[in-house]
Amino acid sequence: MDRSVIILSSLVAGSRVGGGVSAAVLTGAGYTPEHVPTVIFGRHPGLGAPGGGAVPDTVFAGALDGLLAHGAHIRSSAILTGYFASAEQVRAAAAFIETAKAANPGIFVLVDPICGDGVADGTAGGLYVKRETAEAIAARLVPLADLITPNAFELAFLTGQPVTDTASARTASSTLAKPVLVTSVPEGTDRLAVLLTDGKASCSASVDRLEGVPHGTGDLLAALALVARLEGDTGQALCEHVTRACERVIRSSLEARSHDLLLSALS
Questions:
Q1: Has this prediction a pTM greater than 0.90?
Q2: With left for phi above 0 and alpha for psi between -120 and 50, is residue 184 left, alpha or beta?
Q3: Nearest to 21 by CA among 257, 253, 255, 211
Q4: Which of 16, 52, 94, 203 is placed for a possible disulfide with 261 were both Cys, Cβ 3.0 to 4.6 Å?
């Protein structure tokens, strides 16, 4: 294996979100990103009409076939999945990962199950992808993951259990039978926790709840977690590292009144 990582996620040209953030973090850590986009937007949809659109399912699947033909799945250290535009893209990604794992059993798979946000009770109101896409992520990608990085809402959606504090997040995570790094877990009224659960062990770190945080923090944390895991961090060391790194970027962005994450704060 070499220091390349395959990214299956969004490409948003004018906003520091999605696969672009993943690629930047990986590049900064000395890895080579190989990014297959699921959508091509001009900016984050939360800022208004994003322009562009979804990559057609056949184009996305064809790009994955090209990576297989090139042997990328054999030499790569990891696969990171993020935003998907359709259930068919998810199915193509799952088939690609299955082929990669068969040929390269040591490849590490991180699934960021991007599907929604909001009240952490798993209700459909917080989904911002089609339900069939979210359900495909749960059914096809989560079982293939070596680490899952949902936010509190997404964990509730995946498990069907409410996630309202660290105790309920720990209980919900344990039902997935996978290592889970869950973010945005309420801790009192003014703190948010990041909780890592791996088997019977768990650890957490927390930060102040801040207003006006730029889009892309979940993408940032997932990429940081992947790098940390590839570099050998586990447990509390991983949890603290990714939490503090995200906090530095967020505070730097807020101080600069930036609509985007200032990734320079990582250096």
A1: yes
A2: left
A3: 253
A4: 16
